[in-house]
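--- STAGE predict ---
source: upstream dedup step, 1 unique chain passed
mode: sequence only
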Amino acid sequence: MALESFKAQISMLLEEMVNQPEDQHEIQEQLREKLREMRAMGLPLPEDLVTLEKRLDDDFYAAGT
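--- STAGE serialize ---
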């Protein structure tokens, strides 16, 4: 899958997060999966998405405590 395709899919997921906050957890998992796929393919991850992933992880672990 090309980098542009991943970017488009991630963009759609981010839009869903805004438009469907009730599904936020599921969308976050889909976003993490896309980023894992990009890493597995050796594609460069945009720094803003890496930062977002860290924030999501921090929020997840903070909510669990």
